[in-house]
Specification:
35% helix; 7 strands
Length: 202
């Protein structure tokens, strides 16, 4: 049984990803990134309940220093120089597919996984793994994953890649009696939940 480290936010996408990975025969270990001290993008209570229900191990992965360096400081510097940053792109590269992968190797996991709507596939033409759009084109997130280190792609699983819409994911959650089945999508910048950039301080 191959081991996979799954990034879990407490939302329906990562929760259903845990179900799909277990059904595919993986030993799933969940992790939640603790990225900043004044709040979190993730619901630890929801994650804890889901992992208990699905009988999978879970641990908190500390990443505050790295998040400040690679995401928050970059966000502030971009705005200071009249640029429009996308902090999710930097977070994906350095945190979710950087820090998380390094820790996955330490605990003997063969893969890492997230609830992103994207797809990885081996391409014979280019003789390497490539990132592609998921079937859920309205929810596709491959555009914020473009700078993931290419050598990591063969070690990444996106369990939701073959589903065409979010409603299918919610139905799976309901079928398994997950309390997050109807949880709203999170669309704000996680470290500025009220959207007020002007008063934000690092």
């Amino acid at each position: 049984m191959k081991k996979v480290l799954l990034g879990m936010s407490g939302g329906v996408d990562s929760s259903v990803s845990a179900i799909l990975l277990k059904e595919a025969g993986f030993e799933v270990i969940g992790t939640t990134l603790n990225l900043f001290s004044n709040g979190t993008c993730c619901s630890y209570i929801d994650v804890k309940d889901i992992c208990a229900k699905l009988n999978i191990k879970h641990f908190i992965l500390e990443g505050k220093e790295e998040f400040k360096k690679y995401v928050i400081d970059d966000f502030i510097n971009c705005y200071s120089n009249c640029k429009t940053p996308n902090p999710c792109i930097e977070c994906n590269k350095y945190m979710k597919f950087g820090l998380m992968y390094e820790n996955a190797k330490k605990i003997g996991c063969d893969y890492i996984a997230t609830g992103h709507y994207a797809k990885t596939e081996y391409n014979e033409k280019y003789n390497r793994w490539v990132l592609k759009k998921s079937k859920a084109l309205k929810k596709d997130q491959s555009y914020v994953l473009w700078n993931i280190p290419k050598e990591l792609l063969e070690h990444i699983i996106f369990p939701l890649s073959e589903y065409e819409n979010k409603e299918q994911i919610r139905e799976i959650a309901k079928k398994h009696n997950l309390t997050v089945a109807s949880k709203p999508d999170s669309e704000d910048i996680c470290f500025i939940p009220d959207g007020n950039y002007k008063i934000f301080r690092k």
